[in-house]
């Protein structure tokens, strides 16, 4: 049974009440849903790339919702209640950071920047700080400290992983959820829809900025990322 439909994925219940199926769609959106398109096979690529990422993180002691891959577009995941927070890490300046502060794209940051956004489409996912999140009861201080710690660890693992395939991890967004035992675990997806990835030598963008900014064929970019992962 379809439980939830988001911009890029659907979530279905299964016979096991503690597991869901995530189905990756071909829909792409940007600018809070203002720009939309259906891009054939994007869902397949994001499912495959996310699977590789969740497996890599699991192998490095990060708890995730991923259970197993079911098909080209489907993965079995642990049931979680998604926290209404988007967690963003920036290693290199890009996107909304440049726009908001008038900073040029591509500057390497001395330390990763940890950002939170309120997951709320109606208000355009506004950025907020820890005090805001606590006041709005989106998470406790302890939970936010845990999110930061996990996300910084994940950043180190992902940076190293992508560098081996000559990709710079510019920035990315994560979502976490609470499992049935109350543990906070990594959920959602990790794909070029949610990470900015640039070629180390040419700075070619192999992520969703191709769609956001009409920088070239999106599928070709995502296929390149997957191909580099597979021959690593
Ligand atoms: N991101 C995402 N979903 C969102 C917002 C951001 O996956 O709703 C990702 C985005 O792909 C990028 C990183 O988070 O890798 C930082 O995004 P940014 O804040 O620069 O926003 P954007 O440029 O997408 O408006």
What does this structure look like?
A hairpin with a 4-residue loop joins strand 12 and strand 13 (184-187). The protein is an alpha+beta fold and 232 residues long. It has six helices and 14 strands. 31% of the residues are buried. Strands 8, 9, 10, 11, 12, 13 and 14 form a seven-stranded antiparallel sheet that branches. The protein has helices at 42-59, 95-101, 130-135, 141-163, 209-212, 218-230; strands at 2-5, 9-13, 19-24, 27-30, 35-38, 66-69, 74-78, 80-82, 85-92, 108-118, 127-128, 167-179, 184-187, 195-199. The structure holds uridine-5'-diphosphate. Uridine-5'-diphosphate binds next to strand 9, helix 2, strand 12 and strand 14. It comes from Romboutsia faecis. Keywords: ATP-binding, Ligase, Nucleotide-binding, Purine biosynthesis.
Q: Specify the biggest β-sheet.
A: 7 strands, antiparallel
Q: Unreliable segments (pLDDT under 50, ≥5 consecutive)?
A: none
Beta-strand portion reads 25-35%
- The number of helical segments is 6
Q: In angstroms, what separates the terminal alpha carbons?
A: 37 Å
List bound small molecules: uridine-5'-diphosphate
The succession of helices and strands, N to C, reads: EEEEEHEEEEHEEHHEEEHH
Provide the helix percentage.
Answer: 25-40%
Radius of gyration: 17 Å
* Overall body shape: globular
Number of strands: 14
Overall structural class, as computed from helix and strand content, comes to alpha+beta
Average pLDDT across residues? 97
GO molecular function: phosphoribosylaminoimidazolesuccinocarboxamide synthase activity
Pathway: Purine metabolism; IMP biosynthesis via de novo pathway; 5-amino-1-(5-phospho-D-ribosyl)imidazole-4-carboxamide from 5-amino-1-(5-phospho-D-ribosyl)imidazole-4-carboxylate: step 1/2
Keywords: ATP-binding, Ligase, Nucleotide-binding, Purine biosynthesis
Family: Belongs to the SAICAR synthetase family.
């Amino acid at each position: 049974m379809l439980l939830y439909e988001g911009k890029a994925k659907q979530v279905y219940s299964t016979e096991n009440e503690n597991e869901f199926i995530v189905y990756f769609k071909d829909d792409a959106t940007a600018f809070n849903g203002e720009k939309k398109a259906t891009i054939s096979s994007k869902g397949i690529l994001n499912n495959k790339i996310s699977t590789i990422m969740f497996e890599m993180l699991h192998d490095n002691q990060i708890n995730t919702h991923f259970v197993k891959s079911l098909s080209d577009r489907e993965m079995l995941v642990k049931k979680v209640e998604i926290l209404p927070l988007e967690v963003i890490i920036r290693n290199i300046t890009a996107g909304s950071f440049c726009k908001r502060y008038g900073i040029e794209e591509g500057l390497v940051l001395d330390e990763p920047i940890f950002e939170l956004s309120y997951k709320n489409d109606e208000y355009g996912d506004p950025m907020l700080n820890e005090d805001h999140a606590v006041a709005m009861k989106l998470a406790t201080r302890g939970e936010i400290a845990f999110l930061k710690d996990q996300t910084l660890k994940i950043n180190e693992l992902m940076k190293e992983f992508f560098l081996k395939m000559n990709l710079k991890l510019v920035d990315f967004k994560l979502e976490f959820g609470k499992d049935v035992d109350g543990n906070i675990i990594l959920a959602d997806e990790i794909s070029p829809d949610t990470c900015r990835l640039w070629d180390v030598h040419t700075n070619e963008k192999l992520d969703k900025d191709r769609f956001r900014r009409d920088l070239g064929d999106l599928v070709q970019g995502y296929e390149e990322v997957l191909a580099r992962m597979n021959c690593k």
